[in-house]
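quick one, 525 residues, struct below
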Amino acid sequence: MRKMWKNVLGFVLVAAISTGAAVGTSAYLMNKNQSVYNASNSTAANTFNQPYRLTGMNAVAAENTDFTTAAESTVHGVVHIKATTNAKQSADGGGQQQYMDPFEYFFGFGGRGGFQRPQPQPRVGAGSGVIISTDGYIITNNHVIDGADELEVTLNDNRKFSAKLIGTDPTTDIALIKVDAKDLPTIPFGDSEKLKVGEWVLAVGNPFNLTSTVTAGIVSAKGRGISMGGDRSKIESFIQTDAAVNPGNSGGALVNTKGELVGINTAIYSETGNFAGYSFAVPISIAGKVASDLKQYGTVQRAILGVLMMSVGDIADQLSYPNLDSKLKEELTELKSKIKVSEGACVSDFAERSSAKEAGIEKGDVIIAVNGAKIKNANALQEQISKYRPGDKVQITVDRNGSSKTFNVELRNAQGSTSVVKSAGDNSADVLGAAFKALTDKQKRELGVSYGIEVTGLLKGKLKDAGIQKGFVIMIVNDQKISTPEQLEKLVDKVLKGNADDRYIVVKGFYPNGRTKVYAIDLAE
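---
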């Protein structure tokens, strides 16, 4: 028995000594240096000489974050929107036209002498919206209400209102509508630029016409572009989150844990049409400014720098594409040779009337800040410029061959001026829905003409509706020669202010392939 205890004590003693030796050796090596671990191929902790850090006592575990206050303060500020598009009657009278039933014609069934074609049914879409003023102004997505003839808003307390459209902006997919009500609950604006990747956010919407639904997630990325519909004219600098969002959430609120509105939920990344992990919101820095413009002016006062730009990271990616056009490859290679920074928006070219070029910015400059706000890519530059109106002055900081330079730039609108653009119906540019430029001397020589203006871009408007395409050269309108965009705008403005029964123009011109065309365009609403 005594011998057995001796053996047990001996074993315990050996174990204790071994443990003490291991602890002592470990402490000695850690206190001495890390060279033993680094010299070998060991996978021990701190192989990369990272400093030791202790967790702060005031750190709060993510699972302890309380969303109840934010949820309770925002659900009543989100509405359901039902958008109804009435069935359009066909040119021959639609469903009122009687048609002969072939069976009846040959076999005499029914004795009715004909049958009615089934009536087309209205199309009904749904989405969400965010109340931003107590008197009933609501932000939503343009794609939620686009083409609708009737809008019905349902509040979280199930009250229903008819809504009227104040204005839309397809470029940012934002629309502003209004209901006739008072003392409505609102969601206050937050600062979307202060959002950080990893920060908790809530998506509040009304996807299935229930009461408002809340989901939680984190900010996955900022300044994200997703090329919606392939339209490169769209402004995309989305907040990306993993909060669950479904199609009916479009136009709903993205809020921070304080219950402040930081974005308008707009799109999801999905192959099925349902939520699959990522959703995207228009930052309130963009959406709020658009809504303010629509309320105040009826249309967006959009400022531009007058530059063509590429994200620094995209240049190397494009150079890696197989079968790249040799001329484009040469241009990209030249741009890359001038770039000394890893982030920013590289100026690849200028518009014809560019305030940035006039201020001294050069091709190959990388824009790295706007009024001190850091620019990581082209989307971020779009977001920053979208906050301003034509006539505003901004400080643009660029990196030029490794040196930082700052320029003061006065922003302009698409027409090259700083004047306020009036709402559609009052302004020819909005009615026509197109951008123009006078033909250069080189173009005149190549085309064999002495005057004319080129259609350089088309949005929703009368020209696009008439079938005019980009590149069309306008020569004559209502028997008047057109040499500048201003001449066309003055002529159209005159027609719009004239007899309401005689608001049309006849546009004559040709396409670069030599095909001549004449378009008769009714400018009446």
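The radius of gyration is 32 Å.
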